[in-house]
Amino acid sequence: MDAALDLLNLPLFTILGEHVTVLEIFGFVTGALCVWAVSRQWIWNWPVGLVNNLAFLLLFFGAGLYADASLQAVFFVLGVYGWIVWARRRRGGGGADALLAPIQRAGRRDVVIALVATALGTVAVAWLLATETDSAVPWPDAFVLSASLVATWLQARKVLEHWWIWIAVDLVSVPLYIVKHLYLTAILYTGFLALCVYGLVGWRRDWRRQQAVAGRSADPAAIPA
């Protein structure tokens, strides 16, 4: 185990005087693949994401980002849940569109739960980090943890609005990782931000197409005799 960890923490090159390790590069690649796959609604985003969770758990723990490290463990569980949900929904219909689980829209209840959970989670986790750990950035670390959990929960249910939460998470994460000298990870999250915008636009387009197909199916006049 120690030999494996030594290999993962082997520095390959430097960015702004900081070593970039094998582990950080592995997290970079799997993270980018995962977000791109989500934007394309490909179900294999979940297993790739599970591998990415394990990589970032080790990376963040080593950097003293304890909330982010703990978050990866929870992400792993939510990733298994999301994989199951998407797999069940894609088996539930017929025709070509059955390959994709349908995109949902957030209702008022979803919005309230998301906002309250993010706010309460941020306060609670920030207090815990400030009082029980040596974290130098408890508030942004806590927000990233809480908002990411909410975003993953909505993503597992394939709710379109989860992209907005990921965008907020990325906007906070980039300066956070720069402060912690995780420059490659900061670059990765900048890429995540662009992919999230791409995913939001794509999911909106697909949702409108999905609604149009549903409307034609529900209209007897649109169904050939």
TrEMBL record:
Keyword annotations from UniProtKB, A to Z: Cell membrane, Membrane, Transmembrane, Transmembrane helix, Transport
GO MF terms, alphabetically ordered: nicotinamide riboside transmembrane transporter activity
Coiled-coil regions, chain positions: none
Organism: Schumannella luteola
UniProt-annotated location(s): Cell membrane
Statement: the UniProt record of this protein carries the keyword Glycosyltransferase: no
UniProt-listed InterPro entries: NMN_transpt_PnuC
Recorded topology in the membrane: Multi-pass membrane protein
Transmembrane segments: 20-38, 50-67, 73-89, 110-130, 186-203
Source species, domain of life: Bacteria
The protein's name in its UniProt record: Nicotinamide mononucleotide transporter
Similarity comment: family membership: Belongs to the nicotinamide ribonucleoside (NR) uptake permease (TC 4.B.1) family.
NCBIfam families associated with the record: NMN_trans_PnuC (TIGR01528)
Cellular component GO terms held in the UniProt record: plasma membrane
Keyword Cell membrane included in the entry's annotation: yes
Lineage, broadest ranks: Bacteria, Bacillati, Actinomycetota, Actinomycetes, Micrococcales
Chief location category: membrane
